[in-house]
Each structure stands twice: as C-alpha cells, then as structure tokens.
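request received
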Amino acid sequence: SQQGEEDPQALSIQEGENATMNCSYKTSINNLQWYRQNSGRGLVHLILIRSNEREKHSGRLRVTLDTSKKSSSLLITASRAADTASYFCATPAGGSARQLTFGSGTQLTVLP
Amino acid sequence: KAGVTQTPRYLIKTRGQQVTLSCSPISGHRSVSWYQQTPGQGLQFLFEYFSETQRNKGNFPGRFSGRQFSNSRSEMNVSTLELGDSALYLCASSLDRGGSGNTIYFGEGSWLTVV
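response:
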C-alpha cells in the first residue's frame, strides 16, 4: 500500500516561477526523503528530512515537514526547464528504515 | 565516488523465460534493496539485503528472488516471466548506520520488456 501521496499529480509552470509539491503520509515516521525522476531514468535523491527537523534547504530546494499533520512540502524556487521531472516523496514502511514506500508522484513541467 | 550501478540497462525477454539483473552498490554500502516501477502500480518494494541476508521482502510472488554476495553486489532473478513483469527495476543502496534515517541512493534502473 502507498504511504505517501503527492499533490498535485501534475503541475505546469513557466520558467522562473516557484513550484510547490505536497506529500501526505499515514503513519508516524522518523524521516522522509524526496526524489526526482527524469523520464525513463532512475531516482535522484534530493533531500532527507528527519522527524525532528521542520525545514531543510538545498540550493533552490526547500523541504518542510509537519509531523502533526503528517505532511511535507517541496518547494523549488526559480524553476528551470531542466527541473521538468516527476517528484516523489518516500517514507519508511512498517518501521523499517530500509524499506521505502512511495507516493504516485507529481509530474512537474517547466515551460521555457 | 561511483553511484549505484545496474546492468543491463535494457533487455527484452519472452514470456516463460527467466532474467537476472545485477546491481553494484555505492562503495561501502552494505544494504541493497530492489524496487519495481510500473505505470499502474508505481514504485513497489521487492526485497532488501544486508550482509548477504534478506531482511525484508515485499508482496511479490516467489518467482521474484534475489541474493547478495560478500562484496555487497546483488542480483535479482525473475523466473517464468509474465507480460506484467515488464517494468523498470531499480536497485538502491544505503550505509544503514541506524538512527533516524539513512539516505537511500538509487541506480538508473534496468528496463525489462517481456513479449
């Protein structure tokens, strides 16, 4: 079963705009990871945020985590055409940090 | 430092055949896991190995199996292939240090088409 669910399923924006994707999950977690997947390629790790962290930054990426609402968001600022990809959140399944469950992902399209 | 390496990248098999996929984890990583990605089911966990032992297994039939070698390299095998096995198979590795989470890194995947 899927633990995380991303919202929206698809997002289309212009280059330079910000993109925000949300992820909700069902059970308590000790961390949450965000990944990017370009069409036909593998998953690229973006950020891991732990349950005792509320916000984390990496370059143009900002991730927030609200454990009380069981939700996380990924913000990409000043989007570029190269950011076009699917974005997934992943959470540990059944207490095992080594087994991830993924949502269905958000397909982001950045128009030049 | 090399990333997670998977071979082959693409392959086509016929129904009823079997296939073996290979994965070399990031140097020093001892935990290796496998995932299947399909348009219909999304990303699903297959199994995870650590020090040559399977620690976790997903909800897949026994036709799906794997193993890990002493150098942490891993292989997965699918026997009696079915059309529905067509998917992107992703391998992932992590340090597995314990604590509140380890970054899990993925390879580029192996595209399997069953005809």
